Task: inverse folding
């Protein structure tokens, strides 16, 4: 089921001019969302805390009514429909498993709500519950109560409960935020597997770019209720439209310098580090991905070495530069190259594809 | 280790002394009194030891009347007041405007003096040569014939007593239940809404189990409170409850001690021990039942 959002907007009204209170102004949590989510894909809604991504999810789910705009599931306008008539399955951030019911009863709960022609017999219900439980591999835990399960198991139960009614759309709100690092890796693979097995259009919300990048077919990067960029994770990473997106994606984060373009040459400090054909003379923000640095004796960019961090496969060089906007510059190079490193100054050449220029006013990308 | 233990006991001593002197000793004393036959409080002597006091109390028509009244009161008021409080607090939690106002209004009876409320109820229900009382006027307005609720037939008096008790105990229950309802995480309702759960099912399958510890607490304290009812009956029917056929077990104990026909601490003790046994039994049954239906998370 493809999902189409048309000028979707959600405004939370101000609570009136009371002194010292929050929300004195309208908050536009979701501002003019206008894009299409293709059928059967896994989409990551990505953005920092408070950017409106959960609000967007709740709008699609139907728990919130949009101020403006429309939502289509396939060809059907579902904007006015309550959540139960939309055929969505939702996994909440804290899972919202009913603590007094066993895993089996939890998964069965949505089925018991079915009325009229959709009503299921006991056998059918048991069959469906078992199917869903098997899909997320918790069929041996059916008799347990939620508080007797680990976080990862609870997560699976929540997903099974969302899937058992065979929804057209699966929504996951920060599905991994309550898990520890290792479980997070495991569970995100799991979500990917389940999504590919079921081919359900899935939208998940996260503030962790790593998470979104690793499993999504498509990511939607948001900031302050406004969509910044939509695309395949790798494309967005390789070709960010503005400084925010460039900074938000990637671990370790992108290094940002204050630079200047003069005569189609990019200067960082007094050194011309790269030729930038077609760019007018102007001051710029220069974003350089950590993997965009090449160690070179006579490289144009010279930085003061702080320390080396050897992490097996590759080496992080931590250095400083007076024009850097970050406290330190982190560059990643192959372990072989980094072995015999001098102390004091390090010299880098830059990979043009890993260097992005941004306008200092609008922070929009300047292409070259 | 030994020394540590000694120290701990030393710290506990004041509490133990107070509990011992004012709780445990009187309890044992009452138990002892209840077996002393023919006890004379003036000379502090008794003739023998045995079950006579219990036998007397259990054959006393006043006690049986009090027992019957108390049981009727408990069986009617505990479920009705808890159920009504649940309905009202559920309604209160689902409205936004004027909620604070309603909460205050519903809480007013709790801070009002029992006897003052009793007086108001008398005025509402009592039939005098001069006035039929407000309730009777209403009954007449709807075509019924007036009843004297205070000095009239047994069922009318019992109705007023139950009504009054429910009215008195409800505010506390509403207060407890509204805060219990507010403590249920709204994400459960959101999850249920997405799954298309009807409101009724949400209430019975999610809300009730989640607040069940509080409901259970109210039922247990409600039972105990209703078994110990006395002042409510006095407020409505005056101190001569035996004559009004409206006595309760605690009322009977009081009468046996200080009433016009009083001065029988042994009978009073026996009745008190009987009440204790009843309350204990009912509470144990409650605890057993709760094991199945109350969900502590």
Result:
């Amino acid at each position: 089921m493809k999902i189409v959002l048309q000028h979707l907007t959600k405004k939370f009204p101000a609570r009136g001019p009371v002194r010292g209170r929050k929300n004195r102004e309208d908050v536009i949590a979701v501002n003019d969302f206008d894009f299409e989510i293709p059928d059967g894909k896994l989409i990551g809604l990505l953005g920092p805390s408070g950017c409106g991504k959960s609000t967007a999810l709740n709008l699609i789910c139907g728990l919130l009514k949009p101020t403006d705009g429309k939502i289509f599931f396939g060809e059907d306008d579902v904007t006015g429909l309550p959540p139960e008539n939309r055929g969505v399955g939702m996994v909440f951030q804290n899972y919202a498993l009913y603590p007094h019911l066993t895993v089996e009863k939890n998964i069965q709960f949505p089925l018991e709500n079915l009325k009229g022609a959709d009503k299921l017999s006991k056998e059918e219900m048991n069959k469906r519950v078992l199917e869903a439980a098997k899909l997320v591999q918790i069929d041996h835990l059916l008799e347990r109560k939620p508080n007797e399960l680990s976080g990862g198991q609870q997560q699976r139960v929540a997903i099974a409960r969302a899937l058992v009614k065979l929804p057209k759309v699966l929504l996951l709100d920060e599905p991994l935020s309550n898990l520890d690092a290792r479980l997070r890796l495991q569970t995100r693979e799991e979500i990917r597997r389940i999504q590919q097995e079921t081919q359900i259009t899935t939208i998940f919300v996260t503030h962790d770019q790593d998470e979104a990048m690793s499993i999504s077919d498509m990511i939607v990067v948001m900031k302050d209720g406004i969509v910044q960029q939509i695309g395949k994770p790798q494309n967005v990473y390789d070709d960010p439209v503005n400084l925010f997106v460039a900074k938000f994606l990637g671990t370790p984060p992108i290094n940002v310098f204050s630079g200047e373009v003069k005569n189609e040459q990019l200067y960082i400090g007094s050194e011309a580090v790269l030729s930038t054909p077609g760019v007018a003379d102007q001051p710029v923000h220069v974003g350089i991905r950590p993997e965009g640095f090449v160690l070179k004796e006579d490289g144009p960019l010279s930085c003061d070495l702080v320390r080396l961090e050897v992490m097996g496969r590759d080496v992080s060089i931590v250095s400083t530069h007076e024009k850097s906007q970050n406290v330190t510059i982190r560059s990643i190079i192959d372990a072989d190259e980094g072995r015999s490193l001098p102390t004091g100054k390090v010299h880098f050449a830059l990979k043009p594809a890993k260097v992005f220029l941004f306008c200092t006013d609008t922070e929009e990308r300047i292409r070259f | 280790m030994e020394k540590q233990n000694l120290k701990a006991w030393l710290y506990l001593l004041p509490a133990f002394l107070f509990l011992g002197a004012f709780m445990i000793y009187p309890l044992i004393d009452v138990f002892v009194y209840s077996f002393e036959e023919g006890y004379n409080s003036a000379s502090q002597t008794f003739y023998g030891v045995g079950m006579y006091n219990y036998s007397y109390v259990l054959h006393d028509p006043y006690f049986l009347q009090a027992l019957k009244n108390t049981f009727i009161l408990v069986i009617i008021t505990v479920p009705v007041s808890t159920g009504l409080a649940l309905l009202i607090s559920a309604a209160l939690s689902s409205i936004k405007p004027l909620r604070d106002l309603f909460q205050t209004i519903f809480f007013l009876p709790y801070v009002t003096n029992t006897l003052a409320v009793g007086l108001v109820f008398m005025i509402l229900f009592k039939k005098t040569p001069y006035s039929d009382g407000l309730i009777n006027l209403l009954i007449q307005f709807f075509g019924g014939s007036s009843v004297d609720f205070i000095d009239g037939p047994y069922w009318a008096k019992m109705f007023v007593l139950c009504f009054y008790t429910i009215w008195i105990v409800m505010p506390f229950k509403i207060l407890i239940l509204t805060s219990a309802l507010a403590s249920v995480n709204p994400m459960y309702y959101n999850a249920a809404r997405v799954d298309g759960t009807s409101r009724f099912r949400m209430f019975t399958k999610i809300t009730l189990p989640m607040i069940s510890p509080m409901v259970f607490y109210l039922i247990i304290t409600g039972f105990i409170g209703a078994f110990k009812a006395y002042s409510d009956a006095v407020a409505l029917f005056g101190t001569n409850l035996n004559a009004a056929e409206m006595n309760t077990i605690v009322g009977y104990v009081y009468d046996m001690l200080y009433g016009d026909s009083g001065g029988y601490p042994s009978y009073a003790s026996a009745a008190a021990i009987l009440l204790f046994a009843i309350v204990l039994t009912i509470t144990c049954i409650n605890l057993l039942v709760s094991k199945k239906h109350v969900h502590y998370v």
Observations:
- Residues 74 and 223 of chain B are 6 Å apart (CA to CA).
